[in-house]
Design goal:
By secondary structure, the protein is an alpha/beta fold. The chain folds into four domains: 130 residues, Quinone Oxidoreductase, Chain A, domain 1 (Alpha-Beta Complex); 127 residues, NAD(P)-binding Rossmann-like Domain (Rossmann fold), CATH 3.40.50.720; 119 residues, no CATH class; 359 residues, no CATH class. Helix content is 35%, strand content 13%. The chain has a six-stranded parallel beta sheet with strand order 12-11-10-13-14-15. Helix 4 links the parallel strand 10 and strand 11. Its cofactor is Zn(2+). Pfam families: ADH_N, ADH_zinc_N, bZIP_1. This is BZIP domain-containing protein.
């Protein structure tokens, strides 16, 4: 006698679990089949429905024995093994059903969307003949159950994207990933597996992987581009790195199989267009694909990894899931604690070694310098000086830079690890003074209690503020270029070792105007910083923070090196850089400085600047990489001001700095180390007020007509400064003029004499400007208020 009722397990008990319920079995239709269930897989979607509290009968990976069939059933007979449960019905006559894509039928019935009293976590399952599948004899029931969902999902996606000899990357070795490895291998592809743990390598290779890579290093260890990337893990990779021709071959395909657990899938559009990439989505395979998958699995021995347990209701399943989670957490904690112990031991060993080396060297140096023969030999003193500075600077660089790098490499495993303050190996001032040589060098990596530039800077000038923080002892470039340099330990690009004379520390003094002189000096300083193997992170970020969003350290250093190789007849501006007017640089004095005047201004004195666009659109002519549009949308506002508190507001390029100084009354001819000028000293009293009030929407104060005006340049009309979106739009878009009003170009006039006669140290002025400079790619630039600060610092005599 056929049963009339059976037990199902329904989600929605209010506690994130499920509970048994007794329901009536429906009368069988002519195409229906009653299956007595023997096995059922537990899918992640079952757990999701429990968490959502949906009142749905759980289970869709069922295997059982046919007990009863409808009057028109021809493909099954009583006693056959049948499987199914996810795809349950479709209309049978739409374009999707007629083309073998019935899984996308608008009238489909699938698990979770309908048939809510029918599931495979029960005694019986009622299914349509066309949506139940015969199980091959070569597949056991426990192995066939997970294939009803996971197997059909993976196989359908790979069948559409994988062919023999393709390189297929599998990201993640979980419920989907371990099946994807087997299917791709049996299809003749070369399988490359990416996982978070080295402990899974043996398992992956046993399943058919040819290569194995750790996810955090997979871009560095890749041997050749892959053709298909199948996402089976629980976290999306860095798409900017994935979608490059070095990792994913052109015309490659991305197959996200675990997308719902990640949320939105955001891919860089530029890479999609220029590399021809595809994204292939796939649900569980249609019924014809499902039957093919079962036959393929049985013939090639594809088997899921299963853990069998007797179904005793909710408590059994939840307890099994809880045990699995606990085991995974315990394994993660063990790996984390082991890594922390190893790193902590290495850090302690390095700390002890650094402390011992520093102490012994300082003691040895003190003993040596007490000898009279050494005091009378300047060459030995100089060598000891350089060695001491190198050792102490390296020790501090390691302390500031190496430890964060180690943390990054280990995925922040040491975030909660207490670390003692580093031991300061800088000798005290009395001991340093006993060395009989100045403990100061261009590296600028040791702290001082007095200003290393000039003792006079520590004295308070009448009617002036104290030294601003931008130029204190921790500033990176602390030596004026005319300061004697004891030894040339590095070489600027373009210089040569062939000459018997030592190479100059700087070539800036050879430029024919102040704008280019400052431009070259700042590029030389930036190149030295960018070329340091362990550049101090704070200084590096202050100078190159914006460029680091889309340039690597090597690219920054290479770009600066190429700029320094340019001759006096070539422009120092890098007009090939994608963004040409960041912070408004180059737009404030659009008509000043061009032509052949008596005192030319910066790069504007050249008859021609290579690659300079005829109209300022804010962008070069391109072509651009895939990240440029993203930087333009996320890092810049409509006026091309940087959206970052550390880089907000307006910036002047090297030409505008010279124009601004002339507006203040300071004209610097070529080759002059000191100049005399008449300036209005009251502008320095308003520097602090301007600094606190300036912002990205407040234009800088400009010099004009012999007075220091601080008018608001904003008009009542909305700004029309905008650039069209898209790569071609950025390349061809036009930059409207600055906001209407009494703009800086209208107020700039030939300077007249001011009230106070001052003498200015040009080298110190350049050095102070360099200390405030940021790299905008096309040009070095400073904020207007830093020009006044630098000018104030450079005054050495007042009348």
């Amino acid at each position: 006698m056929a049963p009339t009722e059976h037990t199902i397990y329904r989600a929605g008990d209010g506690n994130g679990g499920f509970s048994p319920a007794s329901v009536k079995l429906p009368d069988l239709g002519p195409h229906d089949i009653l299956v007595r269930l023997t096995h059922s897989g537990v899918c992640h979607s079952d757990i999701v429905l429990c968490q959502l509290g949906a009142p749905v009968a759980l289970g869709h990976e069922g295997i059982g024995i046919v007990e009863s069939v409808g009057s028109l059933v021809t493909q099954f007979k009583i006693g056959d093994r049948a499987g199914g449960g996810f795809h349950r019905d479709a209309c049978g006559h739409c374009k999707y059903c007629l083309s073998g894509r019935d899984i996308y039928c608008y009238e489909r019935v699938i698990f979770g969307e309908g048939d809510f009293d029918n599931g495979t976590f029960g005694t019986y399952y009622v299914g349509k003949e066309t949506y139940l599948h015969k199980i091959p004899d070569s597949l056991s029931s426990e192995h066939a159950a997970p294939l009803q969902c996971a197997g059909a999902t993976v196989y359908a996606a790979l069948k559409a994207t994988v062919t023999a000899e393709k390189r297929v990357g599998i990201l993640g070795i979980g419920g989907l990933g371990h099946l994807a490895i087997q299917y791709a291998d049996k299809m003749g592809a070369d399988v490359i597996v990416y996982s978070t743990s080295t402990s899974k390598e043996a398992e992956a290779r046993k399943l058919g992987a040819k290569e194995f890579h750790i996810i955090e290093n997979m871009f560095d260890t890749a041997t050749a581009p892959i053709d298909v990337l199948v996402i089976c893990g629980t976290k999306y990779p860095d798409w900017d790195k994935v979608m490059t021709k070095e990792f994913l071959a052109r015309d490659g395909t991305i197959v996200p199989l675990a997308a719902p657990v990640h949320g939105p899938l955001s891919l860089p559009a530029g890479a999609m267009f220029f590399q021809g990439y595809h994204v292939f989505s796939s649900l569980v395979g249609s019924r014809n694909i499902h039957d093919e998958m079962l036959e393929f699995s049985g013939r090639h021995g594809v088997k899921p990894m299963v853990q069998l347990f007797k179904h005793e209701g909710e408590s059994t399943i939840k307890e099994r899931r809880r045990i699995q989670n606990r085991m995974a957490q315990r394994a993660y904690r063990q790996r984390k604690e082991s890594a922390i112990d190893v790193l902590k031991q290495k850090v302690e060993e390095l700390e002890r070694s650094k402390e011992d080396m520093g102490r012994e060297f300082i003691n040895f140096t003190s003993v040596i310098l007490e000898q009279d023969t050494v005091k009378n030999n300047p060459q030995i003193i100089e060598h000891i000086k350089q060695t001491t500075i190198s050792l102490l600077s390296s020790a501090r660089e390691v302390d500031e830079n190496e430890r964060p790098a180690v943390q990054d490499e280990q995925n922040d495993l040491l975030n909660d690890l207490p670390v003692e303050d580093p031991i300061d190996l800088t000798p005290p001032i009395p001991q340093a003074q006993s060395f009989d040589f100045p403990m100061m060098d261009g590296t600028g990596q040791m702290e001082y209690t007095t200003n290393p530039i000039d003792p006079m800077l520590d004295q308070q000038r009448p009617n002036s503020d104290s030294t601003p923080h931008s130029f204190d002892a921790t500033s990176y470039f602390q030596l004026p270029t005319q300061t004697p340099f004891y030894d040339m330990t590095y070489q600027l690009p373009g210089s040569t070792w062939d000459s018997t004379l030592p190479n100059p520390r700087s070539y800036a003094s050879q430029e024919l105007n102040f704008g280019r002189r400052y431009h070259r000096a700042s590029q030389e300083a930036a190149f030295l910083l960018a070329s340091m193997r362990h550049a101090p992170p704070g200084w590096y970020r202050k100078v190159f923070g914006f460029c680091m969003h889309f340039e690597t350290r090597e690219e920054i250093s290479s770009r600066l090196g190429e700029a320094l190789r340019k001759s006096k007849e070539m422009t120092l501006n890098n007009w090939k850089f994608p963004f040409t007017n960041i912070g408004g640089a180059g737009t404030f004095f659009p008509d000043q400085g061009y032509g052949n005047g008596d005192l030319p201004i910066g790069n504007r004195s050249l008859e021609h600047e290579a690659y300079r666009p005829p109209q300022m659109s804010g962008f070069s002519m391109g072509p651009f990489g895939p990240s440029i549009e993203q930087i333009r949308d996320l890092r810049l506002n409509a006026q091309l001001r940087i959206i970052d508190p550390e880089y907000d507001g307006d910036f002047f390029d090297s030409d505008e700095i010279e124009i601004c100084l002339r507006g203040y009354g300071v004209t610097i001819p070529a080759g002059k180390d000191f100049v005399t000028a008449y300036i209005d000293m009251s502008m320095f009293e308003r520097t602090s007020d301007s600094e606190t009030s300036s912002g990205p929407t407040t234009p800088p104060d400009m010099p004009g007509n012999g007075t220091f005006e601080e008018e608001d340049l904003e008009s009542d009309e909305p700004a029309s400064f905008s650039c069209p979106a898209g790569l071609m739009g950025m390349a061809m878009g036009a930059m409207p003029p600055p906001p209407k009003g009494k703009g800086p170009g209208e107020r700039w006039k030939t300077p007249s004499k001011r009230d106070t006669k001052v003498k200015i140290d040009v080298e110190r002025l350049i050095m102070c400007l360099v200390n405030s400079t940021v790299c905008l790619g096309r040009t070095p630039a400073v904020r207007p208020m830093d020009i006044r600060k630098s000018l104030k610092m450079a005054i050495i005599q007042e009348d």
